[in-house]
Amino acid sequence: xxxxxIDGRQVEVAPGTxxxxxxxxxxxxxIPHYCYxxxxxxxxxxxxCLVEVNGNSAKLAISCKQPCGDKMDVQTASPAVVAARKGVxxxxxxxxxxxxTICDQAGECPLQEYSYEYGSGDxxxxxxxxNKPKHVEFSDKVMFDGERCILCTRCxxxxxxxxxxxxxxxxxxxxxxxxxxxxxxxxxxPYQMNIVDICPVxxxxxxxxxxxxxxxxxxxxxxxxAGCARGCNIxxxxxxxKLLRFVPRRNPExxxxxxxxxxxxxxxxxxxGDARLRGAKIAGEPASIDDALAKLAELxxxxxxxxxxxxxxxxxxELLALKTWAASAGVTTLWHGAATWSGDDxxxxxxxxxxxxxxKALGYEPVPAQAPALRGLxxxxxxxxxxxxxxGLDFLVLQRATETELxxxxxxxxxxxxxxxxxxTWVNVDGLAQDxxxxxxxxxxxxxxxxxxxxxxxxxxxxxxxLTLRVRAELGGADGRLVASES
Amino acid sequence: MSDNLLFIIGxxxxxxxxxxxxxxxxxAYMPWVERKVSAWMQDRVGPNRxxxxxxxxxxxxxxxxIFKEDAIPGHVEKVLFVLAPAMTVxxxxxxxxxxxxxxxxxxxxxxxxxxxxxxxTGILFVFAxxxxxxxxxxxAGWASNNKYSLLGGVRSSAQMxxxxxxxxxxxxxxxxxxQTLRLTDIVTLQVDGVWNIFTQPIGALVFIVAxxxxxxxxxxxLPEAETELVAGYHTEYGSMKFAMFFAGEYAAMxxxxxxxxxxxxxxxxxPFMSNAxxxxxxxxGVVIGMLxxxxxxxxxxxxxxxxxxxxxxxxxxxxxxLGWKVLLPLALVNVVITGLWNLP
Amino acid sequence: MAKVVDRHxxxxxxxxxLPAIASGLKRTFRQMFQPDITxxxxxxxxxxxxxxxxxPGLVRDQDGREKCVSCQLCEYICPPKAxxxxxxxxxxGATYDYSHIEKAPREFFIDMLRCIYCGYCEEICPEQxxxxxxxxxxxxxxxxxxxxxKKRLYEIGGLRxxxxxxxxxxxxxxDAGGFTDLRKRGAGAEEGE
Lengths: 487, 344, 193
Known about the structure:
The complex is a heterotrimer. Helix content of chain A is 23%, strand content 20%. By secondary structure, chain A is of the alpha/beta class. In chain A, β1 and β2 form a beta hairpin. The longest helix of chain A has 16 residues. By secondary structure, chain B is mainly alpha-helical. Chain C is of the alpha+beta class. Helix content of chain C is 24%, strand content 12%. Chains A and C meet through β6 and β9 of A and α3, β2 and α6 of C.
């Protein structure tokens, strides 16, 4: 182990640790950086992370690349360091168009943040700013603005190191350097929108989110992507109850800093608008939820010949409440329905639902190929019902957020929440239990799903927390691990 | 005096119609005057939209009042509620009967007094009737079934009773000196002699102050003090009924101005003219006398308005203090002094 | 600490009150002959100064370009939250150079029932696109009419020449050569696929 002092505080780090990492991980000191990204690696071109090592103010070291040495004395904010950073900021801003008024990055832009700290109020640069290609369509998902670019090359290095391809690169030299498309045309990589997130300035913007809303007006929730069984950690951004974007949230155990474009754009599926079912329906007629539940209990009767088919987009809490009710009503057949899509070798799983592992752990089984004849079927959540199950049914109960073509045949319709409105636990493909938090509120007539089963049971659980504790107890013995995710 | 009944009825009807309409026109135009004068005092312009200088404003107001829905709230005592506005207007008009407007006029060779009813006890009639108007206000307050209205009504009755005493006592000196209660005689005496305001200054002062109180004018408008009682006794009234309270107030102002003119300012007298001069001028004398009388009335009406926009409202205890502890002793002293002065 | 102030003892002259009343009457009478200071409003108009804070309006510059780029800072600063902006891309087929501006408000609402005329929007606007105008007569038959939309706001704001025009002609100065025309190459590649 190596012992060194950073800003007068002694830390002990493993050999090979860089100063930037040591300061960040051991002391919580955030050293400014643009080109360095912990999941891409070190480049050392932006020079903003300069620190003073052993009092050598004449030759500062870049903390992102300088490994810690034994008995090193590092100053991260000495006068020399601040002066150097001011110089770097001035150079970066010389050709930056300073068009924050129209830039989507404004509000979450390190260039903006550091220029508050190290920038000068006015410019000494009287010459013409460089003009470079603007609003270049890198693909149908990503837009590039060469003037805002500070050439940190995070985007090119993302493709090189993470995706192992080179759809974009740097062209020209010196002042005319700019990021450009490779000869194969628009970027086709299914993870390309990650370069929008890692771009420290507004040079790369999402064409989907472009000019939609300023980030400071939006509400953010740290939750989990519902797109597949991977369970990528995301920050969901919403404006006035409408989801506008998903952004990956770093979790080294699951998705690092990345997520796939399809998952990122899946926020659109959760904006239901007018299609949402509010309140319950009995035989197509609007009814109160209490009446609908009473009708459901009456239909199920002693539970003989009745099966429950639950969506694996439901949280473990909902599945547990449903299971508890089913057991008390005499229903012993518990199935889960999963959806699939094309997976890949990076993050995407074949299983396109986020909680299959949780459903399995709670005793739900896949629908058998030869389904037994049923009297009734209770479908909970957003799940495709195999047509074979519907034959010869006396009654069908649907509980989900929207009405489908199946709804016409359902005796009882109950409202449901979308995954982005739920609070609970999902277990991802690796058996990792993760917290799901609501990003938007569904509005009136849509109670939390688990309360339906609670009311059927007649229990008095005050909040989903009481169920979460039971879920943790049930999963804890199996391969359910609970990992607190970073925000 | 003619014996011809038709002549008597004709002249009296003519006088009634003439004088009543005179008062009502004055009552209609007083709000305009009030608004104009207050505007001038406050460096404003005042009503100037309807007709030249807003002169048609009273007609517009009247039309508005007439065409407004005559709403009667559900919680009121209906009979008294409807009766009250009339009861404030009628006494004011009744007092008119004894007020002499001008020297006697010659019609068809007959001399006719320019007063509707030349009563021997004219001044007593005035007091008898003027104190009736308090009933209208009290009834209005009572019938409205509303705390503010009731408070306004109660205040009004207390105020009227207090100042009625001073009002009566202040003129005792006059008829002690004149030795008559007939108003025409009092005027005739002043035409040849001196105006009573010079012989009875204390009486005049007390009478004028009491006149303000009797007509509920600032600084004594406590029955309708809007800062305390919303609008006092007429809070619940609208449309024509409210207009009648309004007209009643201004008619009362006219009547009291006329009384001040008759009792203290020499009635139709013009300085340096005697009864003989008026008689010599014939019917021109009547015109001059009438104009002189109306000029005095107008001047006092202006004084009414002038005071309103100058002096703030009294507190109720101050009002009572002034009435009972200042004006009443003053009036009594006046009676004693007049008595001593006129000792034979 | 309570401080006792003795009341001024009135002299007998003051206690008469009549002189005081007379002086009051004199004052009001004199006032009647002072000139009027009021304005006959619909016919006469008050003088509106340049810094008057009337209804906010959006302005165009001398080229007729709407100066607002929907940065939404006014929406952010607005204390009563009267402003709602729907941002969007630059309008299609604009006659002036939008290559650097890119962004323009699709809609712009100011709820004049909420507006408190503080002028923060004008103060914060980095584009000098919103101004407090001299417009002070706001009346409408419905609440909806008093929510000014973009069209109404440009009517109020009108045209205001901009001596700087910071976005103008930026593309004219594009350095000659040196950059691959990516748009062309992108399109060509797509065709080639």
